[in-house]
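Hello Y.,

Per our agreement to keep a running log of every chain we model this quarter, I'm adding this entry. I've kept the format consistent with earlier entries: sequence first, then predicted structure.
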Amino acid sequence: MMRDRCLIPDVSVSSASILQGLCLRLCARSSLAMTQAVKKIGTLLLVAAVAFPITATAGEDEEQEIESERREAVRSAVEQGHIKPLSELLKEIQKHLPGKVLGVEAEKKEKRWIYEFRVIDASGRLYEVSVDAATAEILKIEQE
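Predicted structure for the entry above:
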């Protein structure tokens, strides 16, 4: 007589082998027992995932903190008149490259703020546009 095998979803190598061992013990006798065991294990995994959600790692927290500080620095530079508001820079970009802005990032390079925009044109081509935040001068338009 052939024994029913218990299939465990891909969880991780260590937890899958533990679960498979449990399942084989629970469902060695019949298909009905196997089905019930798989349901119980699935329920336990679901409960564990909800009860113990994965939290952000220290590296992710640090990245969020850096990004928050960068946004604050940009806001402060705009308020002090050191750089132009984003709305003015967007108007300048639209003059040279009509399309939809998909993303924007601000970086301070060599003591000046540079905005990098990702723009997709009507034909679906993707561009990276670098703009001097203080002067609104377009420094580079590069197709990706």
